[in-house]
Amino acid sequence: MTRGKHRNHAYVIVPDSHEVEPHLDQPEPLALTDRIAKVLARTDADLSATETLKLEVERHASLSTLLAEYDVLAREAQTDRWAALLDVAPFPENVADDVFTSPYYERLEAALARHEDAGHLAAVALAALAPKLTPGEGRADPAGQLADMLDQATQKLRPGRRTRARVAGLIPTPAEPIADDMQTALTERQRLIEAAARRLVDEAQRVGASWASRLGKPPTQPRARIQWQAHAVTIALYRYRYEVTGSSPLGQVQSVRTREQAAEHRTARSAFAHLRQLSTRTDSFQRPSIDRVRRL
């Protein structure tokens, strides 16, 4: 219709009342203007090159896509390292090959990552747990069995001091050494994820989201305020990552489904505790001055 020089005509086809089939559900009656609006709201045309490029950029820049890409890259960055550690682990005879060919191998890699993310050495854990595997037919899959043993050990041990940097304070970064091209890809996605998580906090505060109000007020002291905002970003990213929608900042504990989520829930819970301490500390700093004003 953009080609019409002098006038345009739009024709709306309506059902013939004489051809109505009573045994079928009938569409709701619409005025002609409503029918035109309904037609115009639908498009079957191919997107232009510019529209396609814009949608692709938005898709690749979306937070969910960035998180998925970071997870894949982080896992790939550690594949050779896990293989090297498992290759020298003291497995019982005829077990090592079954571990490497197991359908649960990726699950084992994830358990090794969680163990190190908690501040422990995977090599030490493998030295202690690998000899305990039970070989033979009819036994549990060795990779799955070892993954369960690692997770149990991780839960029983107190968090270690070998802390690792985390994306937005939530997602552990893979251990070095990492190839330069892989590190570049991870760093770029980390930057974009953290920027998007900060926007989540800003938007929640702007609209007065109930979960954001439960974080308390940011401190007035610059250093404490920066720390508070960092913890708020961690909580916002956890909510987005695991689709938490309620007023509780971290959702219900019963909604935690996976071991990965459980580990990150503990991290977010720690961030929330530190954040509340910062808010409370600020209040305690402010109250004496108010009392002094009242006395004066």
Class inferred from helices and paired strands? mainly alpha
Strand content: under 5%
Helix percent reads 55-70%
> How many extended strands?
2
Mean pLDDT: 85
Distance between the amino and carboxyl termini:
77 Å
Instruction: Tell me which oligomeric state these chains represent.
Output: single chain
Counting DSSP H or I runs of 4 or more residues, the number of helices is 11
Shape: extended
Compute the CA-based radius of gyration: 28 Å
Low-confidence stretches: 284-296
Name the helix and strand elements from N-terminus to C-terminus, one letter apiece: HHHHHHHEEHHHH
- Strands across the major sheet, in which order? 1-2
Sheet having the most strands: 2 strands, antiparallel
Could you characterize what this model shows?
With 296 residues, the chain is mainly alpha-helical. Among the domains are: 63-161, no CATH class; 188-295, no CATH class. It contains eleven helices and two strands. It has a two-stranded antiparallel ribbon with strand order 1-2. Helix 5 (105-117) runs parallel beside helix 7, helix 8 packs across helix 10 (222-241) and helix 10 (222-241) packs antiparallel against helix 11 (259-295). It is extended, with a radius of gyration of 28 Å. The relative contact order is 0.08. Residues 284-296 have low confidence and may be disordered.
